[in-house]
Design a protein that fits this description.
- The chain is mainly alpha-helical and about 500 residues long.
- The chain is about 65% helix and about 5% strand.
- The protein has a two-stranded parallel sheet with strand order 1-4.
- Helix 13 packs antiparallel against helix 14.
- The longest helix has 29 residues.
- It starts with a strand and ends in a 5-residue tail after the last strand.
- The N terminus and C terminus are likely disordered.
Amino acid sequence: MVARRGGDGTADEIHHLRDGLLNSPAQFGWARMDDSTAPGSPGKGTPAQVSAGDELMALDTQGSRSEAATVVEAPRRYRVYKIRWFGLVQLVLLNIIVSWNSSADYFHVTESSINWLSTSFLFSFCAISPATLWILNRGGPKPAIIVAAVLVLAGNWIRYGGTRANNFGTVMFGQILVGLAQPFVLSAPTRYSDLWFTSRGRISATAVASLSNPFGGALGQLINPFLATDPSDIPNMVLYVALIATVVSIPSFFIPARPPLPPCPSAEEEKLPLLQSGREIYKSVEFWLVFIPFSVYVGFFNSLSSLLNQILEPYNFTETEAGICGALLIVVGLITSAITSPIIDRYQKFLLAIKMQVPLIGLCYLVFTWAPQTRSVGAPYTIAALLGAASFSLVPIALEWLIEQTHPVSPEVTSTICWVGGQLLGACFILISDALKSGKDANPPQNLSRALVFQAAISVAVVPLPLCLGLFGRDVTNRRIAVDRRQSARPMIIDSNSTG
């Protein structure tokens, strides 16, 4: 009988085990199997307690490969590092700058051209997503963040050149390059939180990084008018944004690729290859029940936020009032998510949160159909605040819950697919809404009431899907959390001094 131990096989570990065995060998849980019998035979193959002397002899004579082995599992070391906040902040800043756009109103083009500028951004996301998925899966978050930084730098400076030359085509090309950067930083948060955070902090980390993307759009709408009070100031405004993008992008090259030690057991589990991950996702009923409403609601959020001025303006709302409505949509959503994400992290009630938020989102889109017709700011403001609160808090919860359900599929796979669905539908919804716009002879002229009816119908139609989660005997165990809980029963060392 030969003993085999975990760990790196150093002499210090042998002496440590030897000292422990002399005092209390049973605490190590070592057992010996009768080599002459096959496991499962009646009365044979039964583990027997091994004496300290036997184990010491086994340790010193280790090396025989032909005899059965007793496994000694050395305690696993887990640690969370303060430097994880550096990478998270970098993701936040890149998500902000990647959605900080200049307005196409200054280029004297039609509203349809403005809408195409928005859709080019969304279609760019979909086009580059396969490369995003491959880079995140093979290299992790750091290569994806570096690619995003390079595209952000190039796109912003090309956009500045196009603005200086008053060339809308060049501006759109720069916009497309920035759009190509977006999936790298929008799909990376779930992968980053899985790599650097424990189950008690992943939702919050994903929320902070993911939701900073619409926050960047809101900052652009708020700050750009102050940077450019006159059309002649537009090139300077775009220059300032390009300079900010440069400062934000440079630190991307210095973030660590991965922690020296994993934060928890599930973080070190080997993930499935891409093709196998695709097959697992395709067979997952839970994935489809969340993916469809997630994509629809992200799509309509993109469409609504892009068309809000065009929705409200025919009903005598000012541009300032429409801007406030858009700000409420985002700011209230960010505040709500900041409150709900730590709560869900603590109590891990993913499914309850999803089943509460989805009906509220569907109801908000339904009621918003009549909000502009009131010609009063009360209805649009209230509905926008509720819609933002439910939508923003749903995003990180839904993304993390899908990872739990599909584990050991790598986190970036489900998140990238979900974001692609949302961006693709968002582009389609913008074009459909533009096509549904009433003519100049309508009352009021060029209103989007038919587009709002379309938006409400689709939003309500997908509500029942996530409500079916957990029904009909389906297993909705949080697999990744279950791994951590199972492993917590085994010997492990958690360096609590490194948390921060």
